[in-house]
């Protein structure tokens, strides 16, 4: 568990916020935030989705396309193909708006070429990049199908962008949080085993030997209150802990989820610094 003690923002002491990572793999991370406020957690969610920079194909110059697929559909598929966008890969690339070039150049973009003749299916692995570190995340995404002697030739230009401008630049496929569930029992009432049977996720387990209802995997509770509605005597109550949250980030593989989280927190810190500076002026 990672504990952020004595959090400071511009020298001012903040709250003791705790972060505990529950699950983490290549494309997904789930963690618990304790002693935080809804505006802070929601700000991290929104920035992770909308303001973390990512690389995606923006311009497609089609030289030849003999397939049955329209050029616009092919360009759309290329735009939504995940491109490696981790910090190491895109370091040094400029935003298109901040580059001095007229359209695109190696300083603000990465070019891909595709030249295939049918018959066969053209996959994302067939895209050839000018930068060996920047390529399609997955090799087996089908782009189009070519019949005998049909040819496709094109150049695709990937640029850095933000999810607030287009979905193809969203680094997250899932970015959500919920308040930490809280299940309590009224010990003055008779044990109502029916509420355990009503739980759709199997979180409640009736133990008639000990005359209790046990709670299993509380964090999986969706707070649907099916158990509460099934209880005839008000034996159970379902609520939440107001300052504790379960946060989940899932990516399409273009960026590790922890990088998305750290970058979102960095951007939020910069925004806070600007606001503090503005208010002091």
Automatic annotation (TrEMBL):
GO terms for cellular component: cytoplasm; DNA-directed RNA polymerase complex. Its main location: cytoplasm. It is an enzyme of class 2 (transferase). SUPFAM superfamilies: Insert subdomain of RNA polymerase alpha subunit (SSF56553), RBP11-like subunits of RNA polymerase (SSF55257). Keywords: 3Fe-4S, Cytoplasm, DNA-directed RNA polymerase, Iron, Iron-sulfur, Metal-binding, Nucleotidyltransferase, Transcription, Transferase. Its EC number is 2.7.7.6. The keyword NAD does not apply. It catalyses: RNA(n) + a ribonucleoside 5'-triphosphate = RNA(n+1) + diphosphate. This is DNA-directed RNA polymerase subunit Rpo3. The gene is rpoA.
């Amino acid at each position: 568990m990672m504990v952020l003690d004595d959090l400071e923002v511009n020298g001012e002491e903040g709250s003791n916020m705790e972060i505990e990572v529950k699950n983490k793999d290549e494309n997904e991370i789930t963690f618990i935030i304790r002693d935080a406020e809804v505006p802070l957690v929601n700000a991290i969610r929104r920035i992770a989705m909308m303001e973390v920079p990512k690389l995606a194909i923006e311009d497609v110059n089609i030289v030849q396309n003999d397939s049955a697929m329209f050029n616009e559909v092919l360009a759309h598929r290329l735009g939504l193909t995940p491109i490696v966008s981790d910090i190491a890969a895109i370091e040094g690339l400029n935003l298109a708006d901040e580059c001095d070039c007229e359209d695109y150049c190696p300083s603000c973009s990465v070019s891909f070429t595709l030249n295939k003749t049918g018959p066969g299916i053209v996959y994302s692995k067939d895209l050839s990049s000018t930068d060996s570190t920047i390529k399609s995340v997955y090799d087996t995404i089908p782009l189009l199908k070519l019949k005998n002697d049909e040819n496709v030739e094109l150049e695709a230009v990937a640029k850095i962008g933000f999810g607030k401008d287009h979905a193809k630049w969203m680094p997250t496929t899932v970015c959500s949080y919920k308040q930490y569930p809280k299940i309590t029992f009224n010990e003055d009432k008779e044990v109502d085993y029916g509420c355990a049977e009503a739980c759709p996720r199997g979180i409640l387990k009736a133990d008639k030997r000990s005359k209790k209802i046990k709670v299993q995997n509380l964090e999986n509770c969706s707070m649907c209150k099916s158990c509460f509605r099934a209880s005839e005597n008000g034996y159970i109550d379902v609520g939440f802990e107001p300052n504790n949250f379960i946060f989940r980030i899932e990516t399409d593989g273009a960026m590790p989820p922890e990088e998305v989280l750290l970058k979102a927190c960095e951007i939020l810190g910069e925004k806070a610094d600007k606001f503090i500076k503005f208010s002091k002026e």
